[in-house]
Amino acid sequence: MTRRAVAHALVILVSTPPWTGAFAQERRIADWRMLPAEGRRITVGSDVAGRLTRRDSLSEASALRLQAWEFEATAGSTLSFHAFSTRFRVYLQVVGDYADHDYGTAGGFVCNVRLTEAIEQSGRHLLIVAGHDSDLTNGGEYRLRMSSDPLEPPELECPMGEERIRSTADLTPAHREGRTTSIGQSTQRSELSNRHPVDTAGARWAVWNLGSGDRRATRVTIIVWSAHFRPVVDVRRPGLPSFRADSTAGRTLGRCSAVLLVTLPEARSSYLLLVTAREPRALGSYSVDVVEASDPRPRPPCPAG
Question: Against a cut of 0.85, is the pTM above it?
Answer without folding.
Answer: no
